[in-house]
Amino acid sequence: MSLSFRFFILPIFLLIVSYASMAQNATLSGTVFDDNQVPVFGASVVLSKTGKGVMTDEAGAYSFQNLSAGTYKIQVSFIGYRTEVSQTEIRTNQANILNFSLKESTYNLNEVTVTGKSIVQQVKDKAFNVGVIDAKNLHHTSLDLAHALDRTSGIRVRESGGVGSQLDISLNGFRGNQVRFFIDGIPMENFGSAFQLNNIPVGLAERMEVYKGVVPISLGSDALGGAINIITNSYAKNHLDFSYSYGSFNTHRTIVNAIYVSPKSGFTVQANAFQNYSDNNYKMHVDVADINTGEYFRDQTVERFHDNYHNETVIAQLGVVNKPYADRLLIGATLGKNYREIQTGARVTGVFGAWHRKGNIIMPSLKYSKKNLFTKGLDVRLNANYNLGSEQNIDTLNRRYNWFGQFREYPNEGGERSYSLYKYKNNTGIATANFEYNSKDRHKFALSNTLNTFDRKGDDQLNPDNNQYDQPRKNLKNILGFGYTLEQEKYNVSIFAKNYFQQNKFTRRIDDENYGPGYEYVDFINTFSSLGYGSAASYFINDNLQIKASYEKSYRLPESNELFGDVINLQGNIDLKPEHSNNYNLGSSLWVRLNEYNQFNLNASGFYRDAKDFIRPRLNNNQVMLVMDNLGSVTSLGVEGEIRYQHKNSLNIGANVTYQDLRNNTKYEAGQTTESVVYRDRIPNMPYFYGNADATYTLALGPKNRRLSIGYNLLYVHAFYLYWPSRGSDKLDIPEQISHDLTLTYFFNDNLQFTLEARNIADQDLYDNFSLQKPGRSFTGKIRYKVF
Amino acid sequence: MKKVNLFFSLLFMGLLFVGCSSDDNGGNNPGTENPTGEEPQPEEMEKYVVTATPLATEGVADYILTTDDLSSGSISTEGNGIEQDGTYRYYVTNNDKFFSLLYGQGNPGAVTTYGLNSEGELELLSDFQAETVQAFEAVDDDILMMKISRSSDAPFAYWYRLDTNSLQIAAEGQINTQELADNENGEIAFFSWITQIDDKVYLPYFLVKGCCDDRFGTEFPDEAHVAVYSYPEMEYVETISDDRTSFIGRYFVNGLTADENGDAYAFSSAVATNAGEFNSTLPSAITRIPNGSSSFDSFYFNLEQASGGYVIDSHIYAGNGKFVGIMQNKAEMTSAYGGGKEFAIIDVYNETFEWVSGLPDPSTITTLTYRNNYVSEDGKTVYVGITTETGSFVYNIDVDGAAATQGLEVEGGVITALHSLKASAE
Q1: Which is nearest to A164 in space by CA: A201, A198, A202?
Q2: Confidence label for A533 from pLDDT (cuts 50, 70 and 90)
Q3: How far apart are CA B125 and CA B141, in angstroms?
């Protein structure tokens, strides 16, 4: 975790310079820890009388030599922490040792970063376009990780409904699996339905790193549009906190974090447990068909009646920390289960009343990390997990429902979608290895490998003979990357190369045309291997202005679910090819400090991508399911901007806006010699202009640091067309969307907070994929208590 | 006029004329009769309705366009046309209404209905929800729709009678297709299409296993059956069978059309399969059920012989015993689901077969309108939509001369249907 704090380091402010120098033979040294007893790297330590200042090293250590005896004031500061001032008497001819323990500041990290000039000296570590969301600022809210991300520049979260619904995140116009997700650097794919970003509470995370465009080798993945790395709380001391929230639509969420660390042996036990429950019975504005006559009743307001979702998950780990052989060695397991009722198909016209799913996650895991292994500068990180969990699809009632919840039942066996009790295991496994070597002369070498396996096996007791489920559905993916980075005072350059490998094993019916006959199954193996490469650079024009540029030739390999389907509303497409693209990014950041109280931060970036075999979801031909497909060639030219203003520590206002111009670049459709009529047309059903604005005001209220914080968030999404914009005159669209959220938090003390939250206050209709509606106005209350 | 005795190919029928017409093509639709008994306005508005899908890999919808002329000029989907939600759409007209059905494979879908207003613009009349059906046809003032099971575990065909005046499902029922087929091995009947003749509907069917990884296979490839039901009661009357041809029609394709005398001509493609192999031993041919008869008569026209090895894919009735047949080379046939690209004029009165000249080289044709073609009032011209690698055109086939000319260009789209619609008399 200290890596990113390097980033936010404070400058050394030489505050008071005093006089006097006497016999200079005393030393002062010590270590600076954070409140988790983790050494703080890069904290500034200033000795008041002398005006001397140093920074702590990676072990959190500092030292001053040749001091005169006497009484000194020592000030220690670090971004995100309260500045500590201590007075000590230094004596000659002895080792004076003074350790510090910094307390976390209640101010937000972003606020502090903009105050510091020398932030830049650490930011330069990254040539990548990375943004960091401090999740701790959101711990008092009832947000899940996905909705926390939704407030970030360039990010749009799209879901099919309420709590637990299917999720799609787009980042600078890339979406779905073009953007990869990691938890502590471990790829999140294949975690199963019980563990997705929109059912993990934000309280589980410490911060989220958002990489736009080029992704560092250490996250060794085939992310094409970017990556989001969730850093979870990694307390290195005893800790216990819990939170509970209750809100509209009978939504309950609970989260408990508990950590025990033995200070002597380094033995640790960690448990994160969380639970989500919601009826998701929010209102829908739909046309309801009479169950008998088919006549539509227009513009009805109905409640969703079959959308209950709940999940319960425990992540338990035990092991050791801070040992000579390991900074962290943990074995553990993620255990969870979920239940989900399915209300609609890919469109709201398909309504279900009994079809549901169950799933569980049983995922043993191993985490190992060690800095300076064997030799100084060599950092090693190894992770592995295997998901033994299973999923089941339950659709056994031959009924037809309408939005009033009425149904007709047909006499024979059947299902609402298809008669099924299909139960399957995906048997997914992931192993990652990262090696990083930092030489003293600022050369950095990184080697990483990520291996994913997938082997779906399942059966359906209702159709035991149905051998389509028994065919091999295997997928092996390996990404090997090597990178080199040169870090200099003013600039920083990185080059890298990645090998992408994928092998899919599957069976295909040869005569499978339109339910054609023939039960000849033939095994196929598709193998793909290709080399991608890129470069990233950053440069400080002056201390307050930085520019970054990057280029990558990248591949995005199809996911297992995209190849084999998710058995709900995503249909498999075994012919899906890897998408490849050339990505160019250019960005700049400016920090402006008007005076002590007023600061600005501006970010602007532009990107251009040209993608071939662009992987996009589309509705299957009969509009029932989504299917991922390669869609020829697409170009994307976009800009995004963000501005943030801070007044003292009480007011923080920001806004971000993204515009992306996605154009169809397929000039000739297959079999055609004339130019496609939708060549250079805007890609339909994709938001292209959207933004967020937020404001937070904090005021002291009562004694003992009691505070009230008022937060407001605005979401805007410009209207967009469902189908190609250039075609037709009487068109279907997804209208403009505006949502206002308000959050009130009362900090009773550092350990206890109460929050009231109102989302979508104006109760506007919000839509998502293919015009599925999202919840209207909702209220949530939350309590968070940190025991110790 | 009340008597609806003539039924042409499926799409042909809905677009015929209001009661004022006296052309011998008939097809007058009683539903369009002016309820007040007044003569309709002579200058009544009429438009051709053309539907088109842009050629693109994704994000495509069907667009409904209107035009006054199918024989020349061009129209485009660019900034023009009513967008239809979803690609897989089927169309039928009846009672001066144009119905757009979404094929939703097992799920219900919205059916949108349009009428033509006096300005000649399409106007949304209503939406209603209907099941996904495998056969639909204008019958009297209704659209009769059938959802047909392909599973022997649930051998039911559900029928829905949509009243085109109230735009609601007026009646529904089910037919046990296993009992209807009455086979010792349990194969079930699958209706190929629906044909109205007088006060009955004729439902040709083929036999399918409905199971065992060969749902559409059969062990009875050399039989033709037509189930007859009374209308609107949909009570079973009889089954008319024949063993000179394989089954009549195909999946989603009409194979039975009555001429002006009410004699029904039955087209067999001879494309039955078993375990993926074509297994019919009989050639593609036309047979006949005379008006009111309970059996086929001796009429037999061997299409494979007449065409030199082609089978009928689908047909369009022009009038006076003349059909436009879309033909497929049997030697090149790989599936039982169509793909013919060559046109011929088949005259059942004179038993002649003549290839149509003036059409694009079949190897350059990518798609064409197998259903939803339009026949002129006088029966002399049949309009078909053809997309080649260079564009989409409406071809005008002169039935008597067996010659086609290139007509209206449809820019930016594959033509999916050609219809005609009159402004409603209401």
Answers
A1: A198
A2: very high
A3: 16
Q: Which residue has the higher pLDDT, A632 or B228?
A: B228
pTM of this prediction? 0.77
The 3-class secondary structure across A313-381, one letter per residue, is EEEEEEEEEEECCEEEEEEEEEEEEEEEECCECCCCCCECCCCEEEEEEEEEEEEEEECCCCCCCEEEE
* E-strand stretches of A98-178: 100-101, 130-134, 155-159, 167-171, 174-175
Chain A residues whose beta carbon lies within 8 Å of the beta carbon of residue B217: 517
CA A174 to chain B, closest CA, distance in angstroms equals: 17
C-alpha pair distances (Å), A186 with each of A181, A197, A256, A448: 8, 14, 22, 12
Gyration radius from chain A CA atoms: 28
Give the best residue of B50, B51, B58, B211 to mutate against chain A (max A CB count within 10 A).
Answer: B58
CA A682/CA A187 separation, integer angstroms: 32
Between the two ends of chain A, the Cα-to-Cα distance in Å is 21
Q: Residue B111: which of B126, B94, B95, B96 has the closest Cα?
A: B126
Report the 3 state secondary structure along A738-781.
EEEEEEEEEEEECCEEEEEEEECCCCCCCECHHHCECCCCEEEE
Highest mean pLDDT: which of A52-66, A115-129, A351-365?
A: A351-365
Q: Does domain B133-302 have CATH number 3.40.50.150?
A: no
Position A659 confidence tier, pLDDT thresholds 50, 70, 90: very high
Rounded Cα distance between A131 and A111, Å, is 14
Cα(A232)–Cα(A197) distance, integer angstroms: 13
**How many whole angstroms separate alpha carbon B332 and alpha carbon B381?**
29
Of B306, B312, B313, B319, whose CA–CA distance to B352 is shortest? B306
Which of B79, B153, B214 faces A729 most closely, judged by CB atoms? B79
* Confidence class for position A308, pLDDT limits 50, 70, 90: very high
Which residues, 6+ apart, have CB-to-CB distance to A724 below 8 Å?
A678, A681, A682, A684, B54, B56, B59, B60, B61
Contact B216, B337 (CB under 8 A): no
Domain A123-786 has CATH 1.25.40.10: no
Which of A294, A350, A511 faces B130 most closely, judged by CB atoms? A294
Q: Please judge whether B154 and A413 are an interchain contact, meaning their C-beta atoms are less than 8 angstroms apart.
A: yes
Q: What is the pLDDT of residue B202?
A: 97
Q: Where are the domains of chain B?
A: 133-302
Per DSSP, A295 falls in state: B
Asked if A730 lies within 8 A of B413 by C-beta distance, the reply is no
What residue spans of A424-564 are helical by DSSP H? 560-564
Domain with CATH 2.40.170.20 in chain A: 123-786
CA A514/CA B326 separation, integer angstroms:
20
Q: What are phi and psi of A147, to 5 degrees?
A: -75, -25
Q: Where in chain A is the domain with CATH 2.60.40.1120?
A: 2-105
Rounded CA separation A351/A366 (Å): 42
Do the strands B224-230 and B342-347 form a parallel or antiparallel pair, or are they unpaired?
unpaired
Give the integer Cα–Cα distance in Å for B44 and B18: 10
Fold of the domain spanning A2-105: Immunoglobulin-like (2.60.40)
